[in-house]
Design goal:
single chain; 303 residues; Structural Genomics Hypothetical 15.5 Kd Protein In mrcA-pckA Intergenic Region, Chain A; Pseudouridine synthase; nine-stranded mixed β-sheet; four-stranded antiparallel β-sheet; 6 helices
Amino acid sequence: MEEYCFQTESCDNQLRIDKFLAEMLEEYSRSFLQKLIAEQHVLVDGRPVKANFRLKEGEEILVQVPEPEPICLEPEDIPLSILYEDEELLVVDKPKGMVVHPAAGHSSHTLVNALLFHCQGSLSGINGAMRPGIVHRIDRDTTGALIVCKTDRAHRILAEQLKVHSVTRKYRAVVFGNIREEEGTVDAPIGRHPTERKKMAVNYRNGKPAVTHYRVLQHFQNYAYIECQLETGRTHQIRVHMSSIGHPLLGDTVYGPARQPYALEGQVLHAMTIGFQHPVTGAYMEFESPLPQYFTDLLKNIR
C-alpha cells in the first residue's frame, strides 16, 4: 500500500478535498481519488471525510492507496533506442513526447509498454505492476538516457545509489537570457508551489533539499546553451531552478513565458549523460545520449 501525507496551507482554505488531491496526485484521476475517499482511505486529522469536505489551514491529510488489482499491461512493439543492455539492466534513450510509465487511465504507448515487449516481461517488480523496471523518471517532453532495471537486485542497488546522489546525471538545455557567469550552483529547496498546486517551486518552508550545478557551453544574444549536473533529483528540478534565477528553459510554458519564440513541443532539455556503478560487478559505467535532431536544429537556428 502506498501512503501520502500532506499538510494544508492558507492557500488551501475552503478547497474541496477531492480537488486538492487531484492537484497533488496528478498520476491518479479525480474519480479514482473520490473512490478512495468514499472507501475511507483518505483521512483528515485521523477522520474519514466526504469528497465535498472543505479544508482548513493546518490539517493533516493521509491518503492510503491500496495495492492495485492485477492489470494486464499490453506489451507493444514500439521501437527503442538502447544505449546498453545486459542481464541486469538496460539504458534507453527516451524520445520526446513518450510517457515513461502508465498511470490510472493511461495504460498504453508508454516506455513501459515498449519495455515489456522488448524484455519479454523480465523487469523488476519493486515499483509495482504499473511501473515495472522503472527506478527513476524523466518528464514526457525531456529526452535522453534513462536506466531500466530487469531484476529486483539491480533495482534495489541503483535506487540506493540515486538516494545517496552517487549517480552522475548531466543534462543539456537552452535557457532564456545570456547568463553572465560561466558556471554556478543553485542550492534551493523544491516543493509544491504555494498557490499553483500543479507546479513545483523553490519552497523554503515545505521543500526538500535540491542542488543543481550549471555551466555555460555557449553564449547567444538572447539565450544560453548550458549543461546542468544534478546532485539531487526533485520533480522538475532543472526547470524550477533555472527559472528561479531568471533563466527559464526555452519551450517551457509552465515555468517560463506562455509565448515562445520557436515552435517547440515542451522544454528544451536533454538527459545527455548517466553514470553509475554496475549493481553486480561494481564497475563504474557511463553512457551518453546524442543530442536529438530537434535540439541540434534549434541550436543552428539560434546561431
